[in-house]
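pipeline stage [seq->struct] | target=Ligand-effect modulator 3 LEM3 family protein | organism=Tetrahymena thermophila | residues=308
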Amino acid sequence: MTENNTFGTMNKALKDDGDDFLNTALRKWKFNSKYKRNKLLFILLTLFFILFGSLFTYYYTQIVQVTVRYDNQCVLGTTCTFNINIPSYMSQPIFFYYQLDNFFQTHRKFYQSKDIQQLRGQDRSLSDLVSCAPFVTNADMGKVLSIGGTPLNPNDPAIPCGLIAKTFFNDTFKMYQETQSIQIFENDIAWDVDIEYNYKPTSNAQTQAWHDVTDEHFMVWMRTSGMGKFKKLWGRIKQDLPSGDYKIVVNNQYNSSDFNGYKYVLLTTSSPFGQKNLVLIVAYFSGAFVCIVSYIILLTLDKNKKDK
């Protein structure tokens, strides 16, 4: 009997505790359209989005950007000259890009076709370069001379190997205003982490490598783009350029017809918020529109409740 009474007492205590838990008054939040602070919040957010959207729009209009397609003006394998017109004054620094259309670097087989350890300076054997297949040897890459000018063994590991390296963009550019040369600085165009850590020469690079992996143009190319139309930094111009006609001399070696693509030169200035991009402008004005609509809905709900 004592044991039954004990269990009965425990069950009653547990039931009481359960009832207390189920009947506990919990804090809750409910949106109330009558609160003036809700309407004030939407008004302030609207002003905020419009203010910064207008600021981004102003700086967007101050950016000068010029793009010229040149693959249809130059014969492959030759050095050619084409004109580029700058419509308004460009203040330094001016960023010199090349742009490719219809080239998809995010294809899985393309993106994975490299050997990270080799790029970081480690000597790798053919069996180590599985990720580079089928572009593993010098013969696979179609390379015959090292960066030091010595002949390469066709059966030796290619340095660097892989499809990304094989498709490395190798056009070069010079720029002139009439007969005056415009210097294009080709240093400091790659990420600091790439320069300091990700790309180091192998011990036998001078005699065994077909390209210097510490070349910043190569580093820029190896950072694959997420879109089929992309631009990559080729250099900077550290002088102002008045409006007018300029000439660009290109050593046209890169075959864009292999992927049915197009090649462009793009010159642009920048602003405190970056280069020409409509994303911020659209985002902030869209935010302002949503806040205005929300404010109108609040007013409508509040009015309907008052009428009732």
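stage status: PASS
auto-comment: The radius of gyration is 32 Å. The chain has two domains: 35-63+276-301, 64-269.
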